[in-house]
Design brief:
This protein is mainly α. It has seven helices and no strands. It is elongated and about 90 Å long.
Length: about 140
């Protein structure tokens, strides 16, 4: 509970003046306030933005799309080589690990191990390094077909 200050109690009779806050920029740009200012005779400044109100995009996206269209062959993404797939499967089976057990030991999802063994995964050096450590087999350096 608050305590009273020691000494005589006095009142402060000085007036308190409250000011209105300035109008926000969105209110100033509102058409209603603009028309009201014009009617009142105040100066209103209008500035046209460059390319304002048009639906044009930057031309850079068109350049990249054209380069892709002009390319003779689409870029193929490298997948895990068959040698690496077979090495992973053999080493995992020799260690008597399931795909889920291997995934737990390398801190990855079981789908990652499955994709590597099926050859659908894009080779990641970090994942291959973890598999090398757990399985005791060299996998990196045999990525490309």
């Amino acid at each position: 509970m608050p305590t009273r200050p020691a000494g005589p109690v006095s009142q402060d009779w000085e007036p308190v003046v409250l000011h209105k806050s300035k109008p926000k920029a969105t209110v100033l740009r509102d058409s209603k306030s603009i028309h009201q200012a014009i009617r009142a005779g105040a100066q209103v400044q209008t500035v046209k933005k460059h390319d304002g109100g048009t639906n044009k995009k930057a031309p850079a996206t068109a350049v990249y799309a054209r380069k892709l269209d002009e390319a003779e062959q689409p870029a193929a993404i490298d997948r895990v080589a068959t040698e690496v797939r077979q090495l992973i499967q053999k080493a995992r089976i020799e260690k008597k690990l399931s795909q889920a057990d291997l995934a737990k030991q390398i801190n990855e999802r079981p789908q990652v191990v499955q994709e590597y063994e099926n050859g659908k995964a894009v080779p990641n050096q970090m994942v291959l390094g973890k598999m090398e450590r757990v399985l005791g087999v060299k996998l990196r350096g045999k990525i490309h077909k």
